Amino acid sequence: MNKQATYLRHFYWVDEAEADALTRDLREKKVKVRMAKGVVCVALDAINQVAVVAPEVWSATCFRQGGWYRSSDLNGKYLVVSAFELEACAHRKAGKIMTSDFRPPRLATSEEKMALVEDPEIRKRLPPEWSKIDEREKRLYLRWARRLGSDTQDYDLLHLTHTANHGNFLKPRLFIREEGRIIPYSLDRSAHLCSCCVEIFGLLDSGYDPLLVAPCPGATLFADLEPDRYLRVEKASIP
């Protein structure tokens, strides 16, 4: 059975003391806690009961992408991702992630991507590191895109999509409506995306809820999420 068929994760943003206390308590109860190393993506893997992402992980392998975390109000917080609700930090719950049957009515055109990238409001939100890409990383993303079935050979086109996709969650051009709400969705296939953690874990704080997010290559390779299978991310309702 596809382990993502019943995928559900709850996530929390806590401070260091709360993360330490929670980890000790869970381990005393024989609950396995995975401390993320290197990449944030591993926290999404269904194999984990509970995963904790320390602030420094956002500046490790994906330092450039981690600029979204460092420039957000969540900078310095610990991310906790759990297969079950954590009563000890219920007041810190930020949302839940689940699989959906959503299929995008259409993907973005090149013109729509360019319009998003050139939007002044979106450009103001881009972290300073975001466009500082070395040749090694360009080759890596092109290799990942090919691994997920893309024939693109132009990194600049990939980066255009990466940027436009984040922008679409800030100022949606591609979205659906549900009960009067605008619900933005990832505007291209998984092979052409980057850092879906930005949307999934609420780093944009865009005000839209819920979101429909396609896994990026990192999430498919390091967390075994199914490419192009959209995740529905809903914010927590905390009394």
Describe, in plain words, how this protein is organized in 3D:
The longest helix has 16 residues, at 155-170. Strand 6 (175-178) and strand 7 (181-184) form a beta hairpin. The protein has two domains: 8-99, no CATH class; 110-226, no CATH class. It contains eight helices and nine strands. The strands form two sheets. A seven-stranded mixed β-sheet has the order 2-3-4-1-5-9-8, covered by helices on one side. It has a two-stranded antiparallel sheet with strand order 6-7. The radius of gyration is 17 Å and the shape is globular. It is of the alpha+beta class and 239 residues long. The chain has helices at 16-28, 67-70, 110-118, 120-125, 135-147, 155-170, 197-200, 217-222; strands at 8-14, 33-35, 50-53, 78-82, 93-99, 175-178, 181-184, 211-213, 231-235. Helix 3 packs across helix 6 (155-170). 30% of the residues lie in helices and 18% in strands.
